[in-house]
Amino acid sequence: MDGMVNPSRVHGLIDDRPGDKVFRVDRDIYLDKDIFEAEIRGIFEADWIFICHESQVKNPGDYFAAHLGRQPVFVHRQEDGSLKGFLNACSHRGAKLTPVAQGNAKTLTCRFHGWSYKCDGACIRVKDEEGGYGKDFDRSVYDLRQIGAIGSYKGFVFGSLSADVEPLEDFLGESKFFIDFVADQSAAGLEVLPGSQKYIIGGNWKMSTENAVDGYHTSTVHRVFASTVRQREAREGYEGMMKTETGRLAKKTVRNGCYDLGKGHMVIWAERDPVSTSPLSEAEERLERDHPTGKVNWMLRRGRNLIIFPSLMINDFAATQIRTFRPISADETEVTIYCLAPPEESREARYARLRKFEDFFMASGMATSDDVTALEATHEGSRARVVRWGEFHRGLGTMIDGPDDVAEEGGFTPETSNNSWDQETLYYSFYRRWRDQVSSS
Amino acid sequence: MDGSILTDNLSSVVDDRVDEGMFRVDRAVYTDEDIFEQEVQNIFEKCWIFLCHEDQVAEHGDYFWTEIGRQPVFVHRQEDGSLKCFVNACSHRAAILTPFRRGNAKTITCRFHGWSYSCEGACIGIKNEEPDTDRSKFNLREIAKLESYKGFIFGSLSPDVPTLDDWLGAAKPWIDLMVVQSPDGLEVVPGSSTYTIDGNWKLQAENSVDGYHVSTVHRVFAHTIAARESKGEYTGIGKTEAGRIGGGVPTASYDLGNGHMAIWAEHTTPEVRPIWEAKERLEAELPPEQVDWIMTKGRNLFLFPNVMLMDNPSTQIRVMKPLAASRVDVSIYCIAPKGESDKARAGRLRKFEDFYLTSGMATSDDIAALEDTHEGSLARGSKWSEFNRGLDSITYGADDDARALGFEPAACTDNWDHEVLYHGFYRHWLKMMKGER
After folding, report:
1. Domain ranges, residue B374
2. In a domain, B23, yes or no
3. Which domain range does residue A61 map to?
4. Taking Cα atoms as reference points, which of B430, B434, B425, B406 lies closest to residue B172?
5. Structure confidence at residue B6 (pLDDT)
6. Residues in B touching A73 (Cβ below 8 Å)
7. Are B376 and A92 within 8 A, CB to CB?
8. For residue A311, what pLDDT band results from cuts at 50, 70 and 90?
9. DSSP H helices in A77-236
10. Do A199 and A325 share a structural domain?
11. B339 and B293 co-located in one domain
């Protein structure tokens, strides 16, 4: 299993002919172990990958452990407020250094043989140094290894094992507008609320990425969620922002759409129905004062699911969420979810946000569990190799190059726009970027 | 994944330049599946592997099922008292034949289609047999080699191995130190514990003889025991010698050759050891040097590639079975001199539970450290694990203590914190991986 994949084979896996009304992907991309190795090498260990939110490493000494591909890393907040990213391995014998996933330590001491590292990565202590090494022992040889690049955009921290990456803002491209639509909801910057959830899906990571911006499945997979919540809210008299806007899920009553933002980033959106159900609606006046109405329409009046290539989802629909997909093998994906919120919101808004987060997004909620089932069924179905292709040509007839009218209102320029979140044209730059990076790994 | 792509590159994963002050190992040896495949084929299936102790198959018909590499085998005690070891697979359709890990059966009947085999492996029953069937074609397959050293039974799938005596070499006097503790030999105390570590088997092998981690990983164990014992509930044999874990006592480490390794640390309070009650008898029966080693040196012995014999706070056999590059099964057994007093046995068992059992206070910390190390090894930008501690204090050949006991190590140092002993392990590992003898 050397992960060698012939580049021409990779090109053959993406049948990219929109001119012929064809865009489809070979289902091998979800199953093949060599392709998976090439993805790890060409994407996850070579490119910008989301690590954490700055609010999770607020104070000097705060650290956050994550993975870039399969390699454990951690981010450490420095004395001067800057961030450094390190490989999470003791220089002595390789033990992971962070005792918990998120914590605070001005120095990290390896729990195996007791070597210590300062916040800036300097090896500052070797247990019984004199008893084991000669006089000329040079501790600095054992300083922690920094990752290739680390950067932050509006609180979202990304890292790369490779130093050979474009500047983070160039990488984010048009997706920055959609990060702004979330991040600018608070003048103080957003915070990740305490607590998170991790679960493993028995399916390929790309199916999770697709699902994050798949409007087409909602009226099928989440139909039960919609009718359950609607009945509950009618019976128990839920009002205002405690209500979940469920009508949107069951039938198309509001305007919605999707964008291929370019560079593999993509987004779906739908008008809120009604806006008053959003916990952010209490800040409407402040938002209108601080931002142009075109932007407030996007921040407040439209729900949005954003994918940043390859595996970060930022979600602002029923609640607000960061969701990451970590590939473990071709057949397994670890999902981590966090609730994200403006720190200044009222107790009432926070309460509503959390309840709706639990309802929809948590693994124990009523929507995510249905998604997991659909994704695992799709992974298994992909093994029926007689049927080779997964189709992505829905909406080819209505796709337009560049922005539509609401994109212009937000000031961003997608590669293509489409008139319904049911359409599949948004996946094209994702799979083109995927093809290029996997074939050049 | 054909398990051969690394043959040309194997030497590069062991950076052996002791003359230049460098011995390090590429962390890929822990994580690479191809290397793992090659280990199973070139080491586990070509080497003497510990199977069980004779006490576990004492009577005619007693069997013990274990694995050599990934291949299931079982040892069967014959009517004449000899031992045979068979591949544990029915000749018909390969079902595992032994219903339990350990049991007694004069004939074994396959639970799948009912074929039967005598104790010596002859196929003696075929359900609804066709006329003129030559059952002897279906006799069980014996493994290539089976030998016992003072009760410790080893087997090899390959006939092309040195004699067991030659293979054990300098490790034999260390085994003897356990065996001579009772005139009636050793017994394996009933019961065992098996657990899986999400880490490479070599991390557990290294850990068996790693004195350097003790004061870090087992600090909490030492504090807990010291606090508990200071309350006065534990006296004499009931006490664990916790002070040693903090350091400050004489220690040493040995590369015993053939990949075998050992460490010891001095017991400052030998009277807490269960064997203390036998001191006078041992002094009357054995050379004083051997008694001194038994009484005052707590010892961990590692026999290449996957078994550890331990005589520290308690006595144990620990067997590691590799499942994948990232997983190893570990089984532990308490071993004890036959005929010791109930009080000594109780002390031995309680200390076995305290330290070695997965539910104890030390093994659980080891597992956490080993799993962290496996995961950290995936950070490929931090490529090398160093084994340079103690390079300045290597003695080639025996030190005074080794001479006193009568064994000749390849190298030793005067501190169990040192890492020189691993050089022998990884040199032997590399040699076998390359198919050399």
Report:
1. 169-433
2. no
3. 50-154
4. B406
5. 57
6. 379
7. no
8. very high
9. 129-132, 168-172, 175-183, 205-212, 218-221, 223-236
10. yes
11. yes
